[in-house]
Write a structure and sequence with these properties.
Helix content is about 35%, strand content about 20%. It is α+β, with helices and mostly antiparallel strands. The protein has 2 domains: about 90 residues, Roll (Ubiquitin-like (UB roll)), CATH 3.10.20; about 260 residues, Glutamine synthetase/guanido kinase, catalytic domain (Creatine Kinase, Chain A, domain 2), CATH 3.30.590.10. Helix 3 runs antiparallel to helix 4. The chain is globular, with a radius of gyration of 21 Å.
């Protein structure tokens, strides 16, 4: 009997390590899997970026369901006779259908739901990605250069086409400052969809790169001493009718009162937030002064070294400012699950709204020019200088701790401290190599 090839589809989640893991089944069975999903195990979420599980709160015990969401489906036919790229993002649930307390996607859903219920506000976001393409030709002086695209046109064109086919709304693609480094952006979307898009984009990029003999890495740093890869999270607020409410012409830097309180909440708890937005050992090698990445927890007007940047808007006569006005969170990278990143930003912003916090001080220039006492007076905190320091800050912040279900907090701290221990004693070149392979 002739063997017929039979495609499979994977139901996936983006876990604590920001890795997309899942379980496959014959694609023909998908209609029956939309509700039942596939079996999953609690300890799976404790696998770190290097394929190890140094510790787990659950051991071999427990059973869960990984249930696909139709909004999370990606099915791409590259038109070359090869297999489709087919996976579906989903939610991790208890066997009775309740969201599992440690499901990153459910964590974001809960934060967005509370934001709307308590304030009537909805969040729109977009994740701006930088990545390194191994196999691209590198020439001295190629930063932002047209020549950087020569030789990789088939990859770029297929990648953009795949993003379009997956309905991610490709917006820009450009060579970046670092050798072999590129940046890609997609159009804004409601909060959960924006995070889904970030997960899909990374996997589509890796898939397309592999088809052309390249390797894409979103690691915070690929090569020691070379500029790293960030994820800049753009966000704005809208009311239930969809009207933009982030901008006010007479507000500080153009911020409306709710946007100002939201930003203030994020910056008040920034040291704890960073534990989930910049969650790798290498993240803090990238967050350095004078490197176009965040180093202090400050608000800046069009400042690419501010932790939260007020972005530029068109200034031509008649331009619609309110719909374009947005904030950019810059202390983030792709070692994180987008669901945990955005969920923590929303939780911190909601806390600022609950307390009706005043607008943060708008700093013009580098906060490093101020001494530590003056920064404290202005409410400007130092970002953590290491992953260990960030985890300690999360554990010490009683309010921020409360945003995470206790089970998730325990698992997260155990997972990340295990990652630190796994890398202890390794030189920085090896650490960079391991992360470049993992991401």
């Amino acid at each position: 009997m002739q063997v017929q090839r039979e495609p499979i589809v994977l139901v996936c989640c983006s876990d604590i390590a920001g890795q997309v893991r899942g379980k496959g089944f014959p694609a023909a069975d998908l209609p029956d899997r939309w509700k039942s999903g596939v079996g999953w195990t609690p300890t799976n979420i404790m696998i770190n970026a290097f394929g190890r599980s140094p510790a787990t709160p659950w051991g071999p015990l427990g059973d869960l369901m990984l249930v696909p969401d139709p909004a999370g489906e990606v099915k791409l036919d590259y038109g070359n006779g090869g297999p489709d790229e087919h996976f579906i993002l989903g939610d991790i649930r208890h066997m009775d259908g309740r969201p599992w307390e440690c499901c990153p996607r459910s964590f974001l859903k809960s934060a967005l739901g509370d934001l709307e219920t308590e304030t009537g506000l909805r969040l729109v976001a977009s994740f701006e990605h930088e990545f390194h393409l191994a196999g691209a030709e590198v020439r001295v002086g190629d930063s932002y250069a047209l020549s950087s695209l020569r030789g990789v046109e088939p990859f770029v064109e297929t990648f953009i086409g795949a993003l379009r086919a997956a309905k991610l709304g490709p917006e820009t693609f450009l060579p970046e400052f670092g050798p072999g480094q590129f940046e890609v952006t997609v159009t804004p979307a409601p909060g959960l969809e924006a995070a889904d898009r970030a997960v899909k984009l990374r996997e589509i990029c890796r898939s397309v790169a592999r088809r052309f003999g390249h390797r894409a890495s979103f690691s915070p740093i690929v090569t020691r001493g070379i500029v790293g890869n960030g994820v800049h999270i753009h966000f704005s607020l809208r009311d239930r009718d969809g009207s933009p409410v982030t901008y006010a012409a007479d507000g500080p830097g153009g911020l409306s009162p709710p946007a100002a309180s939201f930003a203030a909440g994020v910056l008040r708890h920034i040291r704890a937030v960073a534990a989930l937005t910049a969650p790798s050992v290498l993240s803090y090698e990238r967050l350095k002064p004078n490197s176009w990445s965040a180093y202090y927890g400050n608000l800046g007007f069009r400042d690419r070294e501010a932790c939260i940047r007020i972005c530029p808007v068109p200034e031509t006569p008649g331009a619609e400012v309110a719909s374009a006005f947005n904030l950019e969170f810059r202390a983030a990278d792709a070692a994180a699950s987008p669901y945990l990143q955005l969920g923590m930003i929303v939780r911190a912003g909601l806390q600022g709204l609950r307390e009706n916090l005043p607008a943060p001080v708008l700093i013009d220039g580098d906060p490093g020019r101020l001494d530590a006492r003056e920064r404290r007076r202005l409410g400007i905190q130092d970002l953590p200088r290491s992953l260990g320091e960030a985890l300690d800050a999360l554990e010490a912040d009683e309010i921020a701790r409360g945003w995470l279900p206790e089970e998730l907090l325990t698992a997260y701290l155990m997972h990340k401290r295990g990652e630190i221990d796994h890398l202890a004693g390794r030189d920085m070149d090896e650490v960079c190599r391991l992360y470049a392979e993992a991401y």
